[in-house]
Amino acid sequence: MAKAFLSRRALAILRTMVECADTARGLDDDYEPEITREGRSCWFGMERIHTRTLDALLYCMAVSRTDDSRDGYERFTLNSTGRQIAARPALAGEVFAALGGGPFTVIDGQVAPIGTPPVVGGGDG
Question: Whole-angstrom Cα distance, residue 114 to residue 52?
Answer without folding.
Answer: 29
